[in-house]
Amino acid sequence: MMFLQSLLSGILTGGVYALAGIGMSLVFGVMNISNFAHGDLMMLGMYLAYFAFTLLHIDPYLALLLIIPTAFLFGFMMEKIFINRVINHPHQNQILLTIGLGLIMSNTALLAFSSDPKILTTSYSSSAVTPLDGISLSLPLLFSFAITCLITAILYLFLSKSSTGMALRATSQNREAAQLMGINVAKMSAIAFGIGTSLAATAGALIAPTYYIHPLAGHSFLLKAFTICVLGGLGSVVGAAVGGLIIGVVESMASTYISSDWKDVVVFVLFLAVLLLRPEGLFGKKGGQ
Amino acid sequence: MKEIATIAIFGLLAALLPLLIGENPYLTGLLITILMMASLSSAWNILGGFAGQYSFGHAAYFGAGAYTTMILLSRFTVNPLLTVLAGIGVACMIALLTGTIVFRLRGHYFALASIAVAEIVRLSVLNFEFTGGAQGILLADVTLWGVDLNSKNPFYYGMLVVLLCTLFLTAYLKRSKTGYYLQAIREDQDAAASLGIDIARYKNRALLMSAALTSVTGSLYALYIRFIDTSAVLDLRLSIEIILTAIIGGVGTLWGAVLGALLLVPLAEMLRSNVLGDLLVKGGFIPETSTLGLFLKENLAHAHVLVYGIITVLCILYLPKGILGLFRRRK
Lengths: 289, 331
Description:
The complex is a heterodimer of chains A (289) and B (331).
Chain A (H helix, E strand, L loop, with lengths): L1 H30 L6 H17 L9 H18 L9 H23 L14 E5 L2 E4 H23 L1 H11 L1 H6 L4 H23 L10 H15 L4 H21 L5 H15 L12
Antiparallel strand pairs in A: 1-2
Helix pairs in contact in A: 1-5, 1-6, 1-8, 1-9, 1-10, 2-4, 2-8, 2-9, 3-8, 5-6, 6-8, 9-10, 9-11, 10-11
Chain B lengths: L1 H20 L3 H26 L8 H17 L4 H23 L6 H19 L9 E2 L4 E2 L2 E2 L4 H22 L2 H11 L1 H6 L4 H27 L1 E2 L1 H4 L2 H14 L6 H17 L2 H8 L8 H9 L4 H15 L3 H9 L1
Antiparallel strand pairs in B: 1-4, 2-3
Helix pairs in contact in B: 1-6, 2-6, 2-9, 2-11, 2-12, 3-4, 3-5, 3-9, 4-5, 4-9, 6-9, 7-9, 11-12, 11-15, 11-16
């Protein structure tokens, strides 16, 4: 029972991680940039959900309809103003730039919202369903998982069917060839970063009802998002989705069978193990990067 | 030869400085921090500047030195210098582990793995009992050869010696075979490999030198402050400050890290002690009672990480080669 319980709650949390991982992987694939501000973008999503709830009295899940376009616009502008200027720089400069932007976001949040953790308590925050005897699944996590599946499905359809989606994938496969085919790669980068940002913010908003909301909360999610991307193969969207679920389950199992203090260590050790044994990731092409 | 002489002159002047400022604990403390950041960034530069491998987790090596020293001294009566050596051993073990895993790979992987290793070290220290956990470790007093190390001057000279060693090593590397190999790896890994350079081995060598020097600085810091916890010596913020100091001065240059530390440490100190806020108000730039004035007075002291973020962004966008890189381009 304990095994099944931690497997199921791991999958539910993993769904949200997957969302954050997909956003980072998309940015990596299209722009070949490791976005170190991704965790802080998640943190902004958490605060957006919190303020939508406390100030505007909007349900955090309904607030996604506001958060997604806002975050897209924010990411789009951030790419236009900062990121695209380093797109041809050495990757360490790109990393440093996104670290700098992340520091600005988290510390501005620290000044504006203070370092006291905030808690978003909805009427259903602590409710749970018990599909089987001895198994209890948190209702907010179930909602989050359902929304994650919906958003992932929409994103998948968008990437595979729409012309913008195809242009994004073409840019991801070969930037120069895509440009030669008449694709506006600069615009594609901004769109990819916008989508990445809105996925991060969505993930943040989805975990807001079950997590402490804190200006530095993004820090721990950043490394998790990286682990997910590397596990799934950098740039692979499907890989990131599967990677997210795996990380969620590993983390939950580690909490159950080792101790919750050590769950992050287990995740990072897994990250190093992937680098050692299968650096191209589960779904990556062999011999790439 | 010219560089060796410049370092020697710099060392001599720096050694005379405490005589000049006399008994001033505040100023000496600030100078020690400057020397510390300068040697940390110089040590980082051996790996980042020469081999082009940006480590985003150098706090792990700093913390390895600091924690090894403190754990040993809080349990046994040993010569502090021996604990410094033990710290080097621990740091080198972490470095070897990291290097073995990631130096076969290229691109973003080393950057990512260096953070992951640093986080594993930080969380382990936080969760284990023998490391003092979240409370950290406090040491009552430190004696070396029967002398009580309570004053600041011994640490000023200790840090200066580490910095000078790092600078000499950097100057030597610039003209040595290892140094040329590392620069070849930085410029083009494939070309370097096709010339028969064992890339992983030389990257590992640079990482080991860098980690060892960083660990010595960490041990000295621990002996100097006599209190450490994970947020002081193992935080990601420290790793970023080390890189930022090197970047502002100029990555891959001999004096870049020293220049960066001379600029950044006093700036951070001015922000922390609110000198900058007071200057802006007293200089009449911002009226004291205005909303902005009050806001600055209230918050500027906590804003130094924010300022670091802004400097990082501006530096990457407008000054990616650092201040010394600017001069080099003009030539």
